[in-house]
Amino acid sequence: MEISVITTKDLIKAYKLYAKPIDRLKEILFRKQYHSEFVALDRMNIEVKKGETFGIIGENGAGKSTLLKIISRTLKQTEGEVHIQGRVSSLLELGSGFHPEFTGMENIYFYGSLLGISPLEMKQKVEDIISFADIGEHINYPLKTYSSGMYVRLAFSVAMAVDPDILIVDEALSVGDLYFQKKSAEKILSFKEQGKTIVFCSHSMYYINRLCDRVIWLKNGQITMEGAPHAVTQAYETYQLKKEAVNRSETAEATPAVESASPSLVLIRNIIVTPFPTVRCGDDLNIEMEIMARDNAQSYQVAAILKRIDGIDIIGIGTKEYEPLHGSRRVNLCFPSLQLKEGTFFVELYAMDEQFVHIFDMKASNPFTIPKESVELGFINIPYRWTI
Q: What structural domains does the chain harbor?
């Protein structure tokens, strides 16, 4: 039988917002409401099983950090119940318990005491902490002399020195340089391999998909979607892309004077992606675009960038090997037997001059998804052969 180690029931966290500091005092004296209310969490119900890595995604202000702080017992809920079984270690606001006048070594013991570790127990962990932080002789210097990178390295190392039953992580894999980020990811993976329970919050969909067993998507303090990592992250990425497209459209509509003053001679009018909205690895991906030319004498070329939702460029191509186009045309771009792995993708299309310098128009296609069909990592299939 699976054991639940984290359970919340009808969890609500509301913040009182005051227009002026004196309104707090007036509210006490006159027993009248002088505040408005912001509900960060609205009847949140979650259940995390022992040994599960539970992911949380969402935009800034969705309620992610508030939920993590309540689970970590550093913030009190307004209403509802929270039940935690086991020792909790949190990687939230790294270094928040450090003292700038203390040396790194002194802060190890000081911060450790805040995490509930006795000086004797911490003494047994010091060598591992210093080795993992890898800040050399600076361990004996006051913290105020540290760079921001050294600061978070030490904070992460001390926080991970606890042997918790439950690990709460909020964007901790983005600290330090690339080398330290790799060490941090490996450390958290080792916790997962030991069967520890992890609650992991990140804006990196790669780490969410790599680490998590189950994911929730928070929006306005409520759970919008819950399920398998790839399904939830693809839905979230698609939502983000559509939101960005709407913002671009609204921006363009808000500046009609510029467009009318200098109308583009070549416009991309329509984009059709097939198959849509799901493309499977091995399918022929076709992107058909309708191009309208205001002046038939104007020559132009077409370019395209196939992109993953997180901004990674898969390939950029153009019609440079073809004669320049003139007049209104229908142009079809085909990627035969597409060898992309799971993810959400879209195509940016450009109408450009013959030298591929000036952009007449640019439009993005609707996003399409490729489902997860294998356990191998990566985002593209490359032919390979083993010889043993």
A: 4-87+164-236 (3.40.50.300), 263-365 (2.60.40.770)
